[in-house]
Amino acid sequence: xxxxxxxxxxxxxxxxxxxxxxxxxxxxxxxxxxxxxxxxxxxxxxxxxxxxxxxxxxxxxxxxxxxxxxxxxxxxxxxxxxxxxxxxxxxxxxxxxxxxxxxxxxxxxxxxxxxxxxxxxxxxxxxxxxxxxxxxxxxxxxxxxxxxxxxxxxxxxxxxxxxxxxxxxxxxxxxxxxxxxxxxxxxxxxxxxxxxxxxxxxxxxxxxxxxxxxxxxxxxxxxxxxxxxxxxxxxxxxxxxxxxxxxxxxxxxxxxxxxxxxxxxxxxxxxxxxxxxxxxxxxxxxxxxxxxxxxxxxxxxxxxxxxxxxxxxxxxxxxxxxxxxxxxxxxxxxxxxxxxxxxxxxxxxxxxxxxxxxxxxxxxxxxxxxxxxxxxxxxxxxxxxxxxxx
Length: 390
Hints:
The protein is mainly alpha-helical.
């Protein structure tokens, strides 16, 4: 293999990398912490997150050159907060994708297995294009899928699969599907004939077979990004998303820009997740997370397909936080008012319910208070009767 003619970049220690960032204009409020984070995460993993914060030089209309200099007030702390934000976002995306993956495996195994327990081996279930090798290829897509599928079965640790293999029994599709990953599911769907694809579409409430194919390709690609801990927040979708003619999508303001970005992908995931589990609050968690996006130079909500206000909660009523009215605190009565009410409610029988010595003490106190109140009234009368100065 020929070696490249350009000189390779020199190796730098972590402290040198921190110095390099500072020289390029990045604010480092705590250089030691920044160095520690570089040892944990890696310089080039974080570089994707600070890329939007680099300055650009105008070359020609529509053409810019990225400079090795950061925009003003770009801090390492904000970049690392964005990294953590993206990590949380990947977890939420994977939560939805996992649920969709399990559901798809289940319905595909059920619908195909209804007619043939070994449907995945029966060529009649597949498109003729999947059975013919492409130009220059030795094996057809169907044959390639079968080879990979056999490896998945042999490497599976699922007891149900191992027991069938050990007993040399044919593995029905509803057992074999436990070895499938999302790529296996996506490829299997793309190879099915139109009638079988329609069975899956009907279960998902979609009337366009190509839409599901497009969605599975996108979900599988972004799932792989998440699985490899790659950045997802401001990267384009694998392909421009296709949408069915459904009222659900007509209200979500999805143009070509949004269909290529995270917002469009979240809409597709939510359509599927809400169909699988109507009580899911996944979209609420995602909305809360999106609205907490850290402030980073060059990375606005627009880069993810959202408007300037962040997550469009008005288009997703589930995400609008409902304020529960708090009960008014009970009115605090003046001590004398409470005392008068208690005295008014006393009866002859109440006098004998407590110890007589305690009752005597309370009565003595009431008499004393009554005498003081009488003196205050007399004093008030005298002061009102006194002649006022001219």
